[in-house]
DNA sequence: CATAATATGTAGCTTATGCAACAGAAAAAA
DNA sequence: TTTTTTCTGTTGCATAAGCTACATATTATG
């Protein structure tokens, strides 16, 4: 469980020449992939930041996931899907590996190390994924915008081991991520400042409670 | 991916005598497990229905997950956790298998078939889990109670291949599951009926649109 | 069967949130 | 640099949703 496997480390040794994996680079704003069923694509973000976004019928944009280095994504996680369109947008320059999950399970004919190491560590990577999703669910089940904000801040704070941190998302994106209206979120942020719960200097958040 | 592995089928042949797995039975209302970090428990619900619930500081109860036959749950999915208490409550009589995830990865010294089959199919089971979690997230990112209800109904309808179906949850539990106030949900349900979007006879929902 | 406990259905009041709109700041592009 | 675009910060208004409370129906349980 507490293995220190790190995709990044062995990415630099990347030399998988089997045809089961594709490496591609994307520039900011490009669509990395759309979720069209049946391909069972599994992707790994090696470099950069991207968002998995959904546009619903009312035109609302939701950031379903915020993806950063080493994140797993792809259709393989969305077998049963709703009719909304899901797409992954590069927020910065991105490097991405593409697999087909079903092929990944089969042994690699060329016995490339990357391939086998990845297969071996896949359960672990997937468990990390589940943990993230559960955290996301805890965020979204918060009833009020205030509680969502406080929990989000608390999560980042724990991750950074500091009561002061830079927001990894723009405020506009944060609202989409928390699934709330942006102006309502701004208002609540102001109230949190007035209540001396948090402070905010530019992009920097300072937690004042406890 | 599209393998037909079914835990249930081979559960009847269950005869794992290694000490790495425990089978227990619970009666309605009992607490099956609480999520206390560091044990890395992985559980499978073989029979019955249960809820993973969270009680927050305001006394709100949230059904984090509604677990039915073959569901996976346990601490292993909650490595990073928030301070709220998570517990699994039996809604009906339940039969549950308990593992320790780290031990599951190691080969079974007694070579029992159950153990090895489970290990083999774990990635598949876990992927199913992810799909469920993503569906849940789609539900929770719906902005209004109406949209949450409609999406929930649509999901069940798709699953049952019918525009008519019994609700698998009580209305009280459904509200907790959708993370909304019960009375507000009831009001919205009434409006949906008035708008001739859905009909409801007792526990039975009939979708009227399309 | 009687009684308790839980679930359903409804209403009034209050508040949080969504929506629209706009001005200024910051960042990106030309 | 200048221009354009995106992001931030704020407000008024309308309404969805939360809270409380209660009556009835349904389901457990002694």
- Mean pLDDT score of chain A: 82
The protein's oligomeric status is homodimer
* Largest two-chain interface: A-B, 39 and 39 residues
Roughly what fraction of the amino acids of chain A lie in strands? 25-35%
Distance between the termini of chain A: 32 Å
- Give the CA-based shape of chain A: elongated
- Which percent range fits the helix content of chain A? 25-40%
The overall strand count of chain A is: 11
Secondary-structure element pattern of chain A, one letter each: HEEEEEEEEHHHEHHEE
* Sheet with most strands of chain A: 4 strands, antiparallel
Please work out how many helical segments of chain A DSSP would assign: 6
Description:
The structure is a homodimer of 210-residue chains. With 210 residues, chain A is an alpha+beta fold. Chain A has helices spanning 7-11, 101-105, 113-140, 145-160, 171-178, 182-194; strands spanning 22-26, 31-34, 41-47, 50-55, 61-67, 72-73, 85-90, 94-100, 164-166, 198-201, 204-207. In chain A, strands 1-8-3-6 form a four-stranded antiparallel beta sheet. Chain A has a four-stranded antiparallel beta sheet with strand order 2-7-4-5. The model of chain A has no long low-confidence stretch (mean pLDDT 82). At the A-B interface, helix 2, helix 3 and helix 4 of A face helix 2, helix 3 and helix 4 of B. Chain A binds a DNA duplex (30 and 30 nucleotides) through residues 143-146, 170-172, 180-190.
């Amino acid at each position: 469980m507490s293995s220190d496997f790190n995709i990044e480390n062995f990415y630099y040794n990347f030399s998988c020449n089997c045809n089961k994996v594709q490496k591609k680079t994307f520039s900011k704003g490009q669509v990395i992939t759309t979720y069209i069923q049946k391909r069972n694509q599994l992707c790994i973000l090696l470099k950069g930041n991207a968002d998995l976004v959904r546009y619903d019928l009312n035109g609302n944009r939701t950031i379903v996931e915020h993806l950063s280095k080493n994140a797993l994504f792809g259709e393989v996680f969305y077998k049963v899907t709703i009719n909304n369109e899901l797409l992954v947008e590069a927020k910065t320059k991105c490097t991405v590996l593409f697999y087909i999950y079903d092929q990944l399970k089969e042994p690699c004919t060329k016995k490339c190390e990357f391939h086998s190491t990845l297969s071996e560590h896949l359960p672990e990577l997937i468990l990390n994924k589940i943990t993230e999703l559960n955290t996301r669910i805890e965020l979204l089940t918060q009833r009020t915008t205030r509680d969502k904000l406080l929990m989000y801040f608390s999560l980042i704070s724990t991750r950074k081991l500091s009561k002061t941190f830079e927001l990894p998302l723009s405020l506009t994106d944060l609202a989409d991520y928390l699934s709330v209206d942006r102006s309502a979120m701004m208002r609540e942020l102001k109230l949190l400042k007035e209540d001396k719960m948090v402070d905010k200097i530019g992009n920097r958040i300072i937690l004042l409670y406890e």
